[in-house]
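User: quick one, fold this
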Amino acid sequence: MMRNTLVFICNFLFLRFGTSLQVTTNPPLIDVPTYSLATTDEHGKTGMNILTYATPVSVRPDRIWSIGLFKGTVSHDNFARNGEGVLQLLSPRHVDVVKLLGGSSGKDVDKKLECEKLGLSWVSPIMDGMPELIPDCAYYLKVRRVGEMIDCGSHDVALCKIESMLVADEKQDAIQEPYLNTAKLRELGIITEQGRVKE
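Assistant:
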C-alpha cells in the first residue's frame, strides 16, 4: 500500500513539474558535526563515546537539544541512570580517537588509557560531579536530560537542556572554530556511509 502511494506521488510530481523521482531505501548522505559524550558511572568513572545524532530543537526559554544514544553502551547506561553529561564538539585534531571512542566498548576497553597511548590525555573534571574531558574541543556543552528517554529502536532519544556552554579563552573570539564532521570521517575511511565506524 505504501509503495503504491509513493509511486502515485512520484507520477503526480512528474506530470505536474516534469520531475522524475524514484523510490529509494537509501537515506540522504548528510554531513553532521561529530561529538563525544562524556558521562560518569555511579563511581564517578568517566565514559566516552562518539555521538553524531545531536541537534538543537529550541532556544527559548531554554536551549533544548535532542541526542540519540546507541543502546547497550556505557554512555547510554550512564546517561539513562543520571541524565547528564558533556557533549564535546570534536576538532580535526581528534580524528585519531574516533575509531577508539566509537568502535569499541568501555565495557571491554579502557578508553582513557588507550586515548593516552594515542597522545590524548583526558583533562580532570573542572567542577564536582562532571566527567573528565577531551582537551582542545571546539565547544563543550553541559547537558541535562529533560523527561524520559524515547525508545527509537537501536537508539534512545533524549531531550536535553543545555546548562552551560564552555569554550577555551583563545577560541572565544574566533568567528568559526573548525570542528570534525562526518564528511571528513567518510573521506578518511574511518566511518561507512551509514555512519558506523569501519572494522
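User: anything notable?
Assistant: The longest strand covers residues 155-166.
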